[in-house]
Design brief:
single chain, D-amino Acid Aminotransferase, Chain A, domain 1, 9-stranded mixed β-sheet, 28% strand, binds pyridoxal-5'-phosphate
């Protein structure tokens, strides 16, 4: 995994572009102790005409939903957050980067109930290339984690909350410790959920198969994009409960997400999928997705927000 390339010049902090070094918080902040934070992960791509953020509005809507579930007082509208994102990219003159909007209870208070403590919003961007080795060896070798996704009505999966990623870290640590790139997490019933920070698609009998929201997954924006693109491409798609053993029987599988983009899964628990190289359906979807996000193919759903930064700045 390529390490993040920071620092960049500016971070947006509640309406002000501050220097990277000044975007700090106090150790007594509520979020440090109790995890009271929600966030987003977005990407901007270098296109022939400058930068373009993929599905900016949808990410900011999800940020609002996450904040609302945890009653975090997010004082910026979706439109204001979208403009702030553009301002942050322009201030850093970055076309190709990862973006991290973050809403955290930074007020200094102890005790679980922190409603009186201040909430701050940040937007950070930095260059972050591939996150799951989908460049060199062509994909990821994964295991099924012994840790489960949180049960319904425990940690709400529809909130992209910082605390959810403690469970994700257990899955990731287990995979790395055992020599894999990534884990697939099962839900509380033992059906397939998703990766630690990615959604999962299988290719079974010529169709795409993916888990439903009720499997404790994040309702990924890349997942939604791939479902719509597959429909446009005439590829069949089924959302269904996926028994674990199906992972070993499929022809192909791939992870998708903002950080992972489209990453082929080459083996699960050392069972090779197909011939252990990226399969034709995965390759077709990956190529269509990358062409769209980089502005090299039409954007029929109007998913790109174009940003006037130096064309190609930071491009990979
Ligand atoms: C747990 C989890 N699932 C799925 C995804 C993919 O979501 P998206 O495509 O919106 O980035 C992410 C990444 O944000 C994630 O953290």
């Amino acid at each position: 995994m390529a390490p993040p390339k920071g620092p960049t010049a500016k971070i947006w902090r509640d309406g002000t572009l501050v220097d990277w070094a000044d975007a700090s918080i106090h150790v007594l902040s509520h979020v440090v102790h109790y995890g009271s934070g929600v966030f987003e992960g977005m990407r901007s791509y270098a296109t022939p005409t400058g930068g373009a953020v993929f599905r900016l509005q949808d990410h900011m809507h999800r940020l609002h939903d996450s904040a609302s579930i945890y009653e975090l007082d997010l004082k910026w509208t979706v439109e204001e957050l979208c403009q702030a994102t553009v301002d942050t990219l322009v201030a850093n003159d970055l076309a190709h980067c990862y973006l991290r909007p973050l809403v955290i209870r930074t007020g200094q208070t102890m005790g679980i109930y922190g409603q009186q403590a201040a909430v701050e919003t940040f937007i950070i961007c930095w260059e972050w290339g591939e996150t799951l080795g989908h460049g060199n060896d062509g994909g990821a070798h994964v295991c099924v984690s012994s840790w489960r996704r949180a049960a319904p009505n425990t940690f709400p999966a529809m909130a992209k909350a910082s605390g959810n990623y403690l469970n994700a870290q257990l899955g990731k640590l287990e995979s790395k410790r055992n020599g894999y790139d990534e884990s697939i997490m099962l839900d509380v019933a033992g059906n397939v959920a998703e990766g630690t920070g990615q959604n999962l698609f299988l290719v079974y009998q010529g169709e795409l198969v993916t888990s439903p929201f009720t499997a404790g997954i994040l309702h990924g924006i890349t997942r939604d994009s791939i479902i719509r693109m597959a429909r446009d491409m005439g590829i069949g798609i089924r959302e269904m409960e996926i028994p674990r053993e199906m992972l070993y029987l499929v022809d192909e599988a791939f992870f998708c997400g903002t950080a992972a983009e489209v990453t082929p899964v080459l083996s699960v628990d050392r069972h090779l999928l197909g011939d252990g190289t990226p399969g034709p359906v995965t390759t077709r979807i990956r190529s269509a997705f990358m062409s769209l996000v980089t502005g090299r193919a039409p954007d029929p759903h109007k998913w790109l927000t174009h940003v006037p930064v130096t064309a190609g700045a930071g491009a990979k």
